[in-house]
């Protein structure tokens, strides 16, 4: 076959494939969409996904499936999304934990935060410092005093996280550095595992978002809330003081958001369809009530540009925190 003819046929085939993919993007979705949760079932992330999937299925007109794939600070699930086609049928439910911090802390992770695009944030999570029931502290200042005491005795306070490089790891490390008190990091695959060991007195504290399940554990005496990390007391823990009410941790505040992400090169019509569906989800009264009950604050509506800009702002902010505590890959 002459070179010119072969080249023309290759060009035509590529053009037809592009047109076919474009048509598929315009008609998206035509089959079930999977929400990939980077933690085991039973934790807060899983519960959020199972509040979202039903109204999202109604908005998209196709079933929405929740798939749990925990491990490696959420990077296993993130890699699965990046290795999948850019067709919008595998959507990552994540946060700065997995997409910004994990690549900074885990040497084996090769993806970059910029490989993903945020379609819409779904919720913001207030956070608290939880402690095992047997820890002899009742507030932030008592916690700091106890941490200093056991560190001097050569038995540093242990703090749980959902993985090396996770936001919860950084918060524990930042608290340790700011106070000048040695503390020991204990990573878990997910929040459910961390809370199980906290309730079993296997780890001392866990700085994390929370929901009704944790408030029930407190009522049952299985764990205690030492302080909340918002400037004001929180509605699910009205009797728990804020860190801002303490002397030692008065500037120690934090919150974290959960959003939905696709590969950066996902075609715009697909991203727009997902975005439209998620905006509709945010108006669902059952979803809002469910998130509220879990202690989550429902995200305000975002345009696609706002969602992308807020993600880029988070990348800059979290990288600054990691730099401040000297986070190194493999730490």
UniProtKB/TrEMBL annotation:
Highest taxon of the lineage: Bacteria
UniProt key word Signal: yes
Record protein name field: Tripartite tricarboxylate transporter substrate binding protein
Cleaved signal peptide residues: 1-25
Alphabetical list of InterPro entries matching this protein: BUG (IPR005064), Bug_dom1 (IPR042100), TAT_signal (IPR006311)
The UniProt record lists the keyword Signal: yes
PROSITE patterns noted in UniProt: TAT
Name of a matching Pfam family: TctC
Keywords on record: Signal
Family indicated by similarity: Belongs to the UPF0065 (bug) family.
Species annotation: Ottowia beijingensis
PANTHER family: BLR1237 PROTEIN (PTHR42928:SF5), TRICARBOXYLATE-BINDING PROTEIN (PTHR42928)
């Amino acid at each position: 076959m002459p070179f010119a003819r072969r080249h023309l046929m290759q060009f035509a085939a590529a053009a037809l494939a592009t047109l076919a993919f474009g048509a598929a993007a315009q008609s998206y979705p035509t089959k079930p969409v999977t929400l990939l949760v980077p933690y085991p079932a039973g934790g807060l992330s899983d519960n959020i996904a199972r509040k979202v999937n039903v109204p999202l299925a109604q908005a998209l007109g196709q079933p929405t499936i929740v798939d749990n794939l925990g491990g490696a600070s959420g990077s296993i699930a993130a890699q699965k999304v990046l290795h999948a086609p850019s067709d919008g049928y595998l959507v990552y439910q994540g946060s700065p934990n997995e997409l910004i911090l994990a690549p900074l802390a885990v040497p084996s992770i090769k993806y970059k935060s910029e490989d993903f695009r945020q379609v819409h944030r779904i919720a913001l999570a207030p956070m608290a410092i939880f402690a095992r029931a047997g820890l002899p502290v009742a507030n932030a200042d008592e916690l700091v005093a106890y941490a200093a005491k056991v560190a001097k005795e050569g038995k540093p306070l242990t703090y749980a996280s959902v993985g090396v490089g996770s936001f919860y790891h950084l918060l524990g490390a930042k608290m340790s550095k700011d106070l000048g008190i040695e503390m020991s990091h204990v990573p878990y695959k997910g929040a459910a595992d961390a809370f199980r060991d906290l309730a079993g007195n296997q780890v001392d504290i866990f700085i994390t978002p929370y929901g009704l399940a944790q408030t029930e554990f407190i009522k049952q005496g299985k764990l205690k809330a030492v302080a909340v990390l918002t400037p004001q007391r929180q509605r699910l823990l009205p009797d728990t003081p804020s860190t801002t009410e303490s002397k030692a941790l008065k500037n120690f505040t934090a919150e974290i958001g959960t959003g939905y992400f696709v590969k950066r090169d996902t075609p715009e019509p697909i991203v727009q369809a997902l975005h439209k569906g998620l905006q509709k989800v945010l108006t669902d009264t059952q979803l809002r009530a469910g998130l509220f009950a879990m202690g989550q604050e429902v995200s305000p509506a975002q345009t696609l540009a706002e969602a992308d800009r807020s993600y880029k702002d988070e990348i800059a902010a979290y990288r600054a925190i990691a730099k401040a505590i000297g986070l190194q890959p493999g730490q």
